[in-house]
């Protein structure tokens, strides 16, 4: 694996950067929403657990299998926190990572998630030298499915009733892209 990317990374509309203390109120607002956590198969964190989740996002290492690099996604014009993108180091040996993202639903429909996820995939391939990046999505999460399909990731699997939350079974899709495919598409 290569080295950490130089942060922040900017796009036309966004800045991907480390979280700052001033991000906590907006982070807490969207992480407290049940509709956000519906597709994460967990209850929204509350109180000290919410603060702990935020602090962990700021300090987590990214060197061993299972480690997660989480970056804040802010609007470039006013530095307003919109959400977050992550890379989870699934296998150093196989050079594989999982991309994930959580965005404030109030900021949906503007293409921010698609732009941020594309940038995080770029970082995964260029800065870290991953061979394959994949996304795991609840099959009912149409917004997330739309993000990865707009980016041209290939649906590799449909796992039927493979996860359960609050007594309800859920299906999961696996989408992926190889570094050579991504480079060919991005030119």
Q: How would you describe what is shown here?
A:
The chain has one domain: Aminopeptidase (3-Layer(aba) Sandwich). The protein is globular. It has 187 residues and is α+β, with helices and mostly antiparallel strands. It is built from six helices and eight strands, in the order ββαααβββαβαββα. Helices cover 30% and strands 34% of the residues. β7 and β8 form a beta hairpin. The protein has an eight-stranded mixed sheet with strand order 1-2-3-4-5-6-8-7, with helices on both faces.
Write the layout of secondary structure elements.
Elements: E1 9-10, E2 14-17, H1 24-31, H2 34-37, H3 47-59, E3 68-75, E4 81-91, E5 96-103, H4 112-126, E6 132-138, H5 142-150, E7 154-165, E8 168-178, H6 179-186
Parallel strand pairs: 5-6
Antiparallel strand pairs: 1-2, 2-3, 3-4, 4-5, 6-8, 7-8
Gyration radius (Cα, Å) is 16 Å
CATH topology heading: Aminopeptidase
Annotated CATH homologous superfamily: Gcn5-related N-acetyltransferase (GNAT)
Low-confidence stretches: none
What's the level 1 CATH class? Answer: Alpha Beta
Shape: globular
> How many structural units, i.e. domains?
1
What's the multimeric state? single chain
* Major sheet characteristics: 8 strands, mixed
Q: Approximately how much beta-strand content do the residues carry?
A: 25-35%
Please give the order of strands in the largest beta sheet.
1-2-3-4-5-6-8-7
Helicity level = 25-40%
Query: Using DSSP, what is the number of strands?
Result: 8
Terminal-residue CA separation:
22 Å
Helix/strand/pairing category = alpha+beta
Give the SSE string: EEHHHEEEHEHEEH
CATH architecture: 3-Layer(aba) Sandwich
Mean model confidence by pLDDT:
94
């Amino acid at each position: 694996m290569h080295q950490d990317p130089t942060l922040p990374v900017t796009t036309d509309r966004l800045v991907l950067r480390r979280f700052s203390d001033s991000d906590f109120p907006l982070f807490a607002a969207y992480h407290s929403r049940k509709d956000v956590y519906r597709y994460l198969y967990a209850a929204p964190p509350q109180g000290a657990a919410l603060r702990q989740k935020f602090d962990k996002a700021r300090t987590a290492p990214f060197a061993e299998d299972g480690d997660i690099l989480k970056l804040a996604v802010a609007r470039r014009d006013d530095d307003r926190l919109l959400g977050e993108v992550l890379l989870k180091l699934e296998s150093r040996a196989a050079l594989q990572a999982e991309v994930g993202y959580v965005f404030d639903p109030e900021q949906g429909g503007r293409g921010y998630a698609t732009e941020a996820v594309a940038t995080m995939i770029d970082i995964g391939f260029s800065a870290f030298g991953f061979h394959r990046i994949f996304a795991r999505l609840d099959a009912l999460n149409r917004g997330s499915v739309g993000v990865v399909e707009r980016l041209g990731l290939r649906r590799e699997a449909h796992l039927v009733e493979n996860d359960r939350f609050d007594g309800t079974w859920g299906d999961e899709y696996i989408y992926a892209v190889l570094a050579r495919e991504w480079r060919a598409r991005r030119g």
